[in-house]
Design a protein that fits this description.
Blueprint lengths: L1 H17 L2 H19 L13 H10 L21 E2 L5 E4 L2 E5 L12 H14 L7 H5 L2 H14 L3 E5 L2 H12 L5 E5 L4 H10 L2 E5 L4 H17 L1 H6 L2 E6 L11 H11 L2 E5 L14 H5 L8 E5 L9 E5 L1 H10 L1 H5 L5 H16 L2 H17 L5 E4 L6 E6 L6 H17 L2 E2 L1 E2 L15 E4 L6 H18 L2
Parallel strand pairs: 3-13, 5-6, 5-7, 7-8, 8-9
Antiparallel strand pairs: 1-2, 2-3, 4-10, 9-10, 11-12, 12-15, 14-15
């Protein structure tokens, strides 16, 4: 046994002598480093320096907190309000001056309609002003259920759900279905409420060029190839396309028939935001699906607000029952906001009655839109943006000054010029630092059925006169 241990020791010594020099040096360094780690302190105590009371006071005096908001000019246009007195109907009183209204989205002229007002007044006397509770906490009134039923019947869908705030409708609907890890394909011109819904969903967002179905298909093909690489992940990843029927920022109509073809080809779901097309497009005002003759069941979810054509407040979503019922549990704006005041629900129901009784109003509106579109062609220095049947058109500068602020000032001067001559227009407003794709500055001109031939001619002449004087 002892001889065996001696033999091992001899071998170790022999190996030590035969080892190359660099090997011995490296082992020596490692041994020294281990010894140092074992015997050195893990940290060193540093002497603390105690500040005197005067030094503390001086530091506090010198400290400046970060500003709560960034600096801004008191002359910012958003801080200067044009004050309205009275209803913003066909004639509107702005800063004490009566003007013809080409600024409010009162497309069907129902805002000051006597029937609508009487229904709202009767409801006010019966139910009071508000609800003071969300739908799940004694905030569901019989008039809410009636409005949801009427909307579903009007749109020819299985079910509808109403929200108390138009902006929150699509902003709540998107994150109710699309979650982290899901994929949403979105048009670059999507409105701000859609953008907020995308943000809340935390999904992976892919933007395609405005109304460019080829670009959308390119993205869908790319995603299809990605799915082939990881089929297990693809099976649990939901995919959506989110578009507007009639874009508020561009006044363009969405090519829905082409969109439906892509839906079935690449197996994605379509969310259609119709706030600008509901009560405007189609023979009966059902929106862009009726306009193109598309089966409404081909669209997975339709949303719209009731603050434009219906002249009330709030919004709604409609579709298949199992799709809509999911929002009653997951739509944040539905679950946590006080429900729509009953008088506004009653007003919306009466507005639907009028729309159903007199579908000719939609034809009248479209004809006036086409007339305004044709009359505005060739306005000096201004470019007309939108489709002929859009009720809210945009007038942009033909040639930008190179500065957004300067462009806005020029357009504001045109609006003020018209306001002085009793024609009410408005600038399109955006949260410039929040917009994903900031639209170009523009004047928005809104068409309603109440505007007469004389009103339209006066407004067009005033705009052309202002453009000639200001955009020399």
């Amino acid at each position: 046994m002892a001889s065996g241990q001696q033999w091992v020791l001899v071998e170790m010594v022999q190996a030590f002598y035969e080892a190359p020099a660099y090997h011995l040096i490296l082992e020596g360094i490692l041994i020294l480093w281990i010894i140092r780690l074992l015997f050195s302190k893990t940290y060193k105590l540093h002497e603390t320096y105690r500040l005197t009371e005067k030094e503390k006071e001086d530091l506090i005096e010198e400290w400046q907190p970060e500003p709560l908001v960034p600096p801004f000019s008191r002359d910012h246009p958003s801080l200067k309000y044009d004050v309205v007195t009275g209803p913003p109907s066909h004639k509107i009183i702005i800063n004490g001056k009566e003007c013809t209204n080409f600024a409010s989205f009162n497309f069907l002229g129902l805002l000051d309609n006597e029937r609508v007002k009487q229904k709202a007044l009767s409801s006010l006397k019966k139910y009071g002003v508000g609800t003071c509770g969300p739908r799940g906490f004694y905030g569901t009134f019989d008039v809410h259920l009636e409005l949801e039923s009427r909307l579903a019947k009007f749109m020819k869908t299985e079910e509808a759900i109403i929200y108390s705030y138009g902006f929150a409708t699509i902003a709540s609907a998107i994150p109710a279905y699309s979650k982290r890890g899901d994929i949403i394909f979105v048009d670059e011109a999507a409105c701000f409420s859609i953008q907020k819904g995308l943000q809340a969903s935390r999904s992976y967002i892919k933007y395609f060029k405005h109304n460019d179905m080829e670009d959308l298909e390119r993205l869908l093909k790319e995603q299809e190839l990605e799915d082939l690489k990881n089929p297990r992940k693809a099976r649990v990843t939901r995919k959506f396309i989110v578009v507007e029927g009639l874009y508020i920022n561009t006044a363009d109509v969405c090519p829905v028939p082409e969109l439906v073809k892509l839906k079935y080809k690449y197996k994605v779901r379509i969310f259609l935001e119709e706030s600008m097309s509901f009560g405007v497009l189609g023979e009966h005002g059902r929106g862009v699906t009726e306009h193109f003759g598309v089966n409404i069941d081909d669209i997975d979810l339709i949303s719209a607000n009731m603050e434009n054509a219906v002249a009330s407040i709030g919004g709604f979503c409609c579709g298949r029952s199992f799709v809509i019922d999911h929002q009653r549990l997951s739509g944040q704006g539905y679950c946590f906001s006080a429900s729509l005041p009953p008088m506004l629900a009653a007003a919306a129901i009466e507005a639907l009655n009028i729309m159903e009784e007199d579908p000719d109003i939609f034809t009248v509106l479209r004809e006036k839109c086409k007339h305004v579109y044709k009359a505005l062609q060739g306005t000096p220095g201004l470019k007309l943006v939108g489709v002929p049947f859009a009720p809210a058109l945009h007038l942009q500068l033909e040639r930008s000054s190179g500065s957004r602020d300067s462009d806005m000032q020029l357009l504001r001067a045109i609006v003020d010029y018209c306001l002085e001559r009793h024609v009410a227009l408005t600038l399109a407003r955006y949260l410039e630092k929040e917009e994903r794709f900031l639209p170009a500055p523009s004047i928005r001109m809104v068409v309603t059925i109440e505007q007469t031939e004389g009103d339209i001619q006066e407004a067009v002449s005033c705009i052309q006169e202002a453009a000639s004087a200001i955009l020399k």
